[in-house]
Design brief:
175 residues, alpha/beta, 5-stranded parallel β-sheet, Bact_response_regulator
Length: 175
């Protein structure tokens, strides 16, 4: 089964305040049933009234963390997609608050891969964060954050590892 066939027909909510990002994601996810929202209010209404297989949430401009909380309440896995909020602190916050993945917009061309990982992990009852770490390995963050990453690296990785383990234990308890 190819990644595209796994995504075929899936209901995906894409939330971003930039129309060009909504257009690009709609095109990349043409095999899916894509619903878009450009405001917090519109996305909140959709999350509360419709069923989605995955939500792709921008952080800034649409109150992405508030939307993540709503998605979690409705058992909708969420991928956080960001440009300006791509920082170690936001990576940790996203994981702790239940995001299935945290992806910089520069990786938008690989969105199918990240969504596929989420769907596969969900079907297996596993954390999608394991596959996410493989797609965005430590070297990616070192290159992206430079010296700031090196200074925060150990603490960040320990915090991230703890958050992933905590989420995995919580998922197992729910089963």
């Amino acid at each position: 089964m190819t990644e595209s066939s796994l995504l075929k027909g899936k209901r995906i909510l894409v939330v971003d305040d930039e129309q060009d990002i909504l257009d690009v994601l709609t095109e990349h996810l043409s095999m899916c049933q894509v619903v878009t929202a450009s405001t917090y209010e519109e996305a909140k209404r959709l999350l509360e009234s419709r069923r989605f297989d995955v939500a792709v949430l921008d952080i800034m401009g649409v109150r992405g963390y508030d939307l993540l909380e709503i998605a979690n309440q409705h058992d909708i896995p969420a991928l956080m997609l960001t440009a300006h909020a791509f920082t170690p602190d936001n990576v940790i916050k996203s994981v702790k608050e239940g995001a299935a993945a945290y992806v910089p917009k520069e990786e938008i061309s690989r969105i199918e891969d990240f969504l596929n990982d989420i769907l596969i992990a969900r079907a297996k009852g596993e954390s999608p964060l394991v596959a996410w770490q493989k797609r965005l390995p430590r070297s990616y963050f070192q290159m992206r954050f430079g010296a700031a990453w090196e200074m925060a690296d150990r603490e960040f990785l320990d915090t991230l590892r703890t958050a992933i383990q905590s989420r995995s234990r919580a998922q197992k308890k729910q089963e």
